[in-house]
Design goal:
- This protein has 393 residues and is α+β, with helices and mostly antiparallel strands.
- It has a domain at 3-209: Ribosomal Protein S5, domain 2.
- The protein is built from twelve helices and twelve strands.
- Strands 1, 2, 3, 4, 5, 6, 7 and 12 form an eight-stranded mixed β-sheet that branches.
- A hairpin with a 6-residue loop joins β9 (338-342) and β10.
- α3 (100-112) crosses α4 (138-153), α3 (100-112) packs across α5 and α5 runs antiparallel to α6.
- The protein is globular.
- The structure holds alpha-D-galactopyranose.
- Residues 32, 36-37, 39-40, 179-180, 182-183, 230, 343-344 line the site of alpha-D-galactopyranose.
Length: 393
């Protein structure tokens, strides 16, 4: 599939620029296996990269312009800016289209080590098969694909965690979404058949073998088709509740609490803030337990942790939707060992850990359940744990 993307970006680049690109780079979307809304609380996450990628073709220029185009907006041709202008564009949120992601990472690299007055201009063409608005980090895939490409052609020598942090900075300060480091870390650090176990405080990471294939299991994604938005609304509100909880409990971040602190938290906090805090504290514990079981017992042992994570997001953090709940329940009734919403919530996708031989049956059951409710058909597909960002050609 990535082969088609490569052909498409190369062809569009050549058509628009009049010459071949210097190279092709790519970065994946992700699913988070477990550890939701823990990243900005300095906690633990366990994502893996999926076999859906963003591919960029890039060529350097002999001036200081940055031009971006994409196969999904091919008719628009180039959007052009000067590298020196990126700081002004950052403040001007009116240009709110997809071009903010490639321009934002160029800006963020300028904050991280690139001297934007000294590097050559670039032409960048993008194609992607990571679904947008599905909670699968299509935006991080663009940031990381462009990030590794610019790191190479501008000879910045930045390591992967630093490019991930630049991607987050771009998302926070250029795009304006107050998100954590989960998505970009998954896209940068992932390895085939492994998850990335990341401590979001120290930013230390390890890869953990998933062993799905050997166990005859796979991950089914159920994209509800309900698009979500993290720059506004519920995501920002949940983040504020967590910060309030930490402040009132006198800790630097919710990471500093354990399940044993919850009794005291119940006495100190209002009821809603308490439930938000309880989600994060128990979720951190579930991530650690998932890592332990994957290492000691294998993937068949983690189903109940995925289920408990979903229940906590539904009842305590209140970020699921009726569609996500139905997707999870139907997957489980069709033989999934565990299932949960993945990503920021308020729409997007659920994942189910399911035996390979039950996939078709589950797909039919989920389609049927959505139809019964009169809801649009979800997109249901298998994802494979894949490699992180890098050069393709
Ligand atoms: C979104 C954000 C991440 C993380 C998740 C929730 O994907 O981009 O930083 O907070 O939501 O776990």
């Amino acid at each position: 599939m990535t082969g088609d993307l490569r052909d498409d970006v190369r062809a569009l680049f050549t058509a628009l620029a009049g010459h071949e690109p210097d190279g092709l780079w790519s970065a994946p979307g992700r699913v988070n296996l477990i550890g939701e809304h823990t990243d900005y609380n300095d906690g633990f996450v366990l994502p893996f990269a999926i076999d859906r990628r963003t591919v960029v073709a890039l060529g350097t220029r002999d001036d200081a312009a940055i031009r971006v185009a994409s196969t999904f907006a091919a008719g628009e041709g180039w959007t052009e800016a000067e590298l020196a202008e990126l700081e002004d564009l950052r403040a001007d949120r009116s240009a709110g289209t997809w071009v903010r992601y490639p321009l934002g990472i160029a800006w963020a690299l300028g904050q991280t080590g690139a001297d934007l007055a000294a590097v050559p201009g670039v032409d960048i063409v993008i194609d992607s098969n990571v679904p947008t608005g599905a909670g699968l980090s299509s935006s991080a895939a663009i940031e990381c694909a462009v990030g590794v490409a610019l790191n190479d052609v501008w000879r910045l020598g930045l390591d992967k965690p630093t490019i991930a942090r630049a991607g987050q900075r771009s998302e926070n300060d250029f795009v304006g979404a107050p998100t954590g480091i989960l998505d970009q870390s998954a896209s940068m650090l992932a390895e085939r058949d492994h998850a990335v176990f990341l401590d979001c405080r120290s930013l230390e990471s390890e890869t953990v073998p998933l062993g799905f294939e050997e166990a005859g299991l796979c991950i089914l994604v159920i994209d509800t088709g309900q698009a979500h938005e993290h720059a506004t609304g519920g995501y920002r509100d949940r983040r504020e509740a967590c910060e309030r909880g930490a402040r009132e409990l006198g800790v630097a971040a919710l990471r500093d609490l354990t399940v044993d602190d919850l009794d005291r938290a119940r006495d100190v906090l209002d009821e809603v803030t308490f439930r938000r805090v309880r989600h994060v504290v128990t979720e951190d514990a579930r991530v650690l337990e998932t890592v332990r079981r994957l290492r000691e017992e294998g993937p068949r042992a983690i189903g109940d942790l995925l289920d408990a994570s979903h229940a906590s997001m539904r009842d305590d953090f209140e970020i699921t939707t009726p569609q996500l709940d139905l997707a999870v329940e139907t997957a489980r009734a069709s033989g999934a060992l565990g299932a949960r919403m993945t990503g920021g919530g308020f729409g997007g996708s659920a994942i189910a850990l399911i035996p390979e031989d039950l996939v078709s049956q589950a797909q039919v059951a989920i389609d049927g359940a959505f139809a019964e409710h009169g809801w649009g058909q979800p997109d249901v597909f298998v994802v494979r744990p894949s490699d992180g960002a890098g050069r393709e050609q």
